[in-house]
Amino acid sequence: MEAWLGLMSGTSMDGIDAVLVSFRDRTVQIHASRCLSYPDDLRQRLINASQNQASPDEIGELNTLTGQLFAQAALRAISDSGLNPNTIRAIGSHGQTIRHQPAGSAPFSFQIGNPAIITETTGITTVGDFRSRDMAAGGQGAPLVPAFHKAFFGSESENRCILNLGGIANITWLPARGQGPVTGFDTGPANALMDAWCLDQTGRPYDADGHWAVEGRVDPELLEDMLSDAYFQRTPPKSTGKEKFNLGWVKTMIARHPDLKPEDIQRTLLELTALTIARQMPETGVDTVYACGGGTRNPELMRALGQALAPARLAVTSELGLDPQWVEPVAFAWLAKQAIEGKPGNLPEVTGANGPRILGAIYPA
Q1: Which of 82, 188, 234, 300 is the most buried (most CB within 10 A)?
Q2: What does the pLDDT read at residue 12?
Q3: Mean pLDDT of the residues in the chain
Q4: Using CA atoms, how far apart are residues 339 and 47, in angstroms rounded to an integer?
Q5: Are 236 and 280 in contact (CB under 8 A)?
Q6: CA distances from 224 to 85, 227, 229, 230, 253 (A)
Q7: Which residues lie across from 90 on neighbouring strands?
Q8: Which of 26, 96, 97, 28 is nearest to 66 (CA)?
């Protein structure tokens, strides 16, 4: 048996997901999974770096520290699995995004978490830096998981959308029987703004189960102001991150709407997530939206999404055989497999790249 290990930390910057898997046809077998939280001080340093509040020395140190932590997450998953490390063909590490700027005259996307450290620590070939080749080919470098969604979640009979609810939300449109192209893009914020506002106002890193949002009410004027942001009207391909949707964005918006209660702002941010996702779905034909990512654990967000997406059905990817928490790290295990086997990992119709490309830099064991 040949196994692959995926490592992922998203825009929520809450920790590292590690999954050890094997693939057979269109099925995934998970041998072990592990979530390793960032220490509070490291998480805050990463957030600061993402907001351009870090020196070159700080960035270099964070690159090493996160690489060490990614390696530890990998070792713990391997230990949990009981598998012989020699059966693990490669590790695919997304790294931690610090800055994503896909537009302008010199586009770039910067992930830290030195893959060389992962290889040296684990003794296993590691693939990292997945976004750069797509961007060099004229693409956005994101989202990259739609290629995995296409390979494993397509259906002959059902028109599906896969919805990832991380810090940023992205969707993948999978028309039944392959009739029409697979498309995908970042719709905007999922948890990023709610988490940032909750931390700023309460000191808690997120609103557990949406309880705080339930205490508030949607402010229609603030909501319409937020919905007017040009990103939501932009046509794909498009991608975004915390360099745009962050606490500063929230405070700019609420400055035009004084005297709102903090819980009303939180409730409005939750509604913003639900509406911006629903309004950017394909106009017709969506049968079921399968959600994954951390946002699936927020029942109030899922309730709001269910209402906004109707008549399409809202479900979670466990109905398709994969736990919502592990879809993205499994995708990067698969992307490592694609790279090692010399196969493309991007979908040009999603990212806007000039064509299919083999993604990732390989650090041999």
Answers
A1: 188
A2: 85
A3: 96
A4: 30
A5: no
A6: 53, 5, 9, 12, 10
A7: 4
A8: 96
CA–CA separation, 160 vs 88, rounded Å?
32
Residue 15 predicted with pLDDT over 80: yes
Contact 242, 96 (CB under 8 A): no
Q: Are 257 and 221 in contact (CB under 8 A)?
A: yes
Beta bridge partners of 5: 20, 91
Residue type, 74: A
Q: 255-278: per-residue pLDDT in tens?
A: 999 999 999 999 999 999 999 999
On the question of pLDDT at 155 being above 80, the answer is yes
CB 98 within 8 A of CB 46: yes
Amino acid identity for residue 97 in this structure: T
Residue 235 DSSP label: P
Which stretches within 35-124 are classed as H helix? 40-50, 56-81, 115-122
Q: What pLDDT, on a 0 to 100 scale, did the predictor assign at position 178?
A: 74
What value does the mean pLDDT take over residues 333-361? 98
Residues 6+ apart with CB under 8 A from 353: 134, 135, 137, 138, 139, 346
Distance CA 202, CA 48 (A): 19
Give the separation between CA 187 and CA 9, rounded to whole angstroms: 19
> What is the DSSP annotation of 123-166?
-S-EEE--HHHHHHTTS-----THHHHHHHH--SS--EEEEEES
Domains of the chain: 3-144+324-363 (3.30.420.40), 154-320 (3.30.420.40)
Do residues 241 and 12 lie in contact, with contact meaning Cβ atoms separated by under 8 Å? no
pLDDT digits over 204-237, tens only?
Answer: 999 999 999 999 999 999 999 999 999 999 999 9
Answer yes or no: is pLDDT of 284 > 80: no
